[in-house]
Amino acid sequence: MQIFAFIFFIIVFSCTKEFSFENHSAAGTLKDLSGSCFPQTLQGTFYNGVTPGSDTAYVTIKVNVTKIGTYSILTDMQNGFGFANSGTFTSLGINTIHLKPTGTPVNQGSTNFTIRFDTSVCSLTINVTDSSILHQNIPPVTQPDYNWRFTDAKRNVTYKGLFENNYTLHFGLITVLVLSTKDAQAPGDSTFTMNIAFPAGTIVPGTYSTDDTPTGIVFRTFSDPCGNCAGGGLIPISSGATVIINVVDYDPLTRVIRGNFSGTTIDWLNELATIKNGVFTATVK
Q1: What is the rounded distance in angstroms from the CA atom of residue 171 to the CA atom of residue 215?
Q2: What distance in Å separates the CA atoms of residue 9 and residue 235, rounded to the nearest whole number?
Q3: Residue 24 and residue 18: Cα distance in Å, rounded?
Q4: What pLDDT, on a 0 to 100 scale, did the predictor assign at position 131?
Q5: How far, in Å, CA of 49 to CA of 81, rounded?
Q6: CA-to-CA distance for 23 and 18, rounded, in angstroms?
Q7: How far apart are CA 101 and CA 82, in angstroms?
Q8: Residues with Cβ < 8 Å from 276, sequence gap 6 or more?
Q9: What average pLDDT score do residues 146-160 get?
Q10: d(CA 55, CA 140)
């Protein structure tokens, strides 16, 4: 009887030890074979005093996974916010994940973070934009339905036109509103297109930035058919140019939308150009 009890104790202890100490954590590195950190991609714009949305503002990073399992990747907290994500790697090699923000940025300017995974460490820099740009004193929307107008402050030229082709596109949970004119056909004509992405899937008042793809503005004249002229443009975030679009009002019954916009873009001289007093109103077909 004592021998049986001793054997039973060994079996239970052995099973318990195996269960408790088995390691299911993933392993890998944030760096390539040369020892350099993988490139990072920033999505969205971060403003001081504004809590970023985890689905619209995040950092995409790459991880070379050498052992599958659970992971937890995070940064330190700086300037009131940080980034983190956790989950399970199920495949070896290069995996891409989103580091989602936590907290709220306090001060504008560059904020430096340290990303850690396994034994690898990489740096991350986030530029926090002055949130006062979201509350600029822009003239109220007074345009009649379908019209748009803005001023190129660099050249003191005001452009205006008529939205004639307005519709929505649906990409999963995202709804993109497209407001566009006809293509410029003769001298004096201009072409203007505004895309506004609504992550919630419905058109709602709020502030939207051309830094958040596929939100964007494209403007060109008949004599200058460039795509990144002084009215906006689908320009890279790295250029430092940003147009803020404020949807002031939307009536789901009449389907009339009104708003304003301002900011900076890249002109045909590849220089920053300020646009101001932008207003628009249209009926969504």
Answers
A1: 13
A2: 69
A3: 12
A4: 83
A5: 11
A6: 10
A7: 6
A8: 138, 150, 151, 153, 262
A9: 85
A10: 30
